[in-house]
Structures are given as structure tokens and as C-alpha cells.
């Protein structure tokens, strides 16, 4: 129920905001596996990013995490737009569902990313996820 309410709130913000983005998480690859755990490489999820000021955005969403658990995340993102539709940036925030790794119900998370907008507000983002024992994720991005 809480996940549904979070998605409803994020959707509601999108109705009244401009300069926003929807991010759809698709797959990941973990390369720094220190034990015999099987990591989830299919990570469906959706995130909503809302412009605050000058490249700074608030971001939140839900997704299936490394340990095949539904997780939520809430934080901030900075994106520096370059030429040719390329941009780089980073995110920092809080997420749940990583107790196996951190021993805490809510963890501090962060990513670095490279993004390329392709056509009509659609783009691809490759995210480096260091908190996840080393992973890279692929996201689809849509300006709304």
C-alpha cells in the first residue's frame, strides 16, 4: 500500500510540474561478487525526477533491487548537460531493502551516470552504482 501511495504522489507531482523526467530501470550487471550470493540482474522500476533549480532535481521511485526485494529510494540528483544531448551527473539519497549488505533498514545510496538524449525527449542512461558492491545499470529516460 505504501508503494502504491508513493507512486500516486510521484504521478501527481508530474501533473503540475515542468522540466521533469521519468526513468525506467531495466537491467544491471554486478561484477564485484565477493561471495556465493546470486544477485538479481533484472531490476524493473520507475523513478520520477523533478527540476528544482539549475540542474538540481529531487528524485524518488520504486524498483526491484539486487536481492530481488522491492525497494524505494528518495534523494537528489545533479545533472550537467553537455553538447550533443550528452550529460553527466550523480545522485545521492536513501533506499531500503539492502539489510543483507549494510545491516540497516534504510541505507545511504549514490550513483554516477552518463546520459544521452536521443530523439523527442527519449534517452538512455548508464549508471555506475558503487554501493551495490560494484554494479552498472541501464535506464531509459523520458522528458515530460
Q: Any descriptors?
A:
144 residues; Porin; 8 strands; mainly beta
Q: Overview of this structure, please?
A:
The protein has 144 residues and is mainly beta. It has a single domain (2-143), classed as Porin (Beta Barrel). Helix content is 13%, strand content 59%. The chain has helices at 2-16, 99-102, and strands at residues 21-30, 42-53, 56-64, 70-81, 86-96, 106-119, 122-129, 135-143. The protein has an 8-stranded antiparallel barrel. It is globular. The relative contact order is 0.20.
Describe the structure in brief:
The chain has 144 residues and is mainly β.
Shape: globular
- Domains (count): 1
Instruction: Give the biggest sheet.
Output: 8 strands, antiparallel, barrel
For this structure, the quaternary state is single chain
Q: Name the poorly predicted regions.
A: 11-17
- The level-1 CATH class: Mainly Beta
Query: What is the CA–CA distance across the termini?
Result: 26 Å
Which topology does CATH recognise? Porin
Taking strands numbered 1, 2, ... along the chain, how are they ordered across the largest sheet? 1-2-3-4-5-6-7-8
Radius of gyration of CA atoms, rounded to a whole number = 15 Å
Which CATH architecture?
Answer: Beta Barrel
Q: Strand-residue fraction?
A: over 45%
Number of helices: 2
Residues in helices, as a percent range:
10-25%
Would you spell out the secondary-structure blueprint of this structure?
Blueprint: H1 2-16, E1 21-30, E2 42-53, E3 56-64, E4 70-81, E5 86-96, H2 99-102, E6 106-119, E7 122-129, E8 135-143
Antiparallel strand pairs: 1-2, 1-8, 2-3, 3-4, 4-5, 5-6, 6-7, 7-8
Amino acid at each position: 500500500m505504501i508503494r502504491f501511495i508513493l507512486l500516486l504522489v510521484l504521478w501527481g507531482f508530474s501533473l503540475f510540474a515542468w522540466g521533469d523526467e521519468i526513468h525506467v530501470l531495466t537491467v544491471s550487471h554486478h561484477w564485484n561478487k565477493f561471495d556465493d550470493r546470486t544477485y538479481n540482474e533484472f531490476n524493473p522500476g520507475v523513478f520520477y525526477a523533478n527540476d528544482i533549480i539549475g540542474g538540481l532535481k529531487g528524485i524518488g521511485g520504486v524498483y526491484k533491487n539486487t536481492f530481488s526485494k522491492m525497494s524505494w529510494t528518495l534523494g537528489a540528483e545533479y545533472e550537467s548537460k553537455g553538447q550533443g544531448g550528452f550529460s553527466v551527473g550523480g545522485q545521492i539519497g536513501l533506499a531500503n531493502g539492502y539489510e543483507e549488505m549494510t545491516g540497516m533498514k534504510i541505507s545511504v545510496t549514490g550513483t554516477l551516470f552518463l546520459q544521452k538524449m536521443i530523439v523527442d525527449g527519449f534517452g538512455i542512461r548508464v549508471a555506475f552504482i558503487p554501493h551495490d558492491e560494484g554494479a552498472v545499470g541501464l535506464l531509459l529516460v523520458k522528458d515530460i
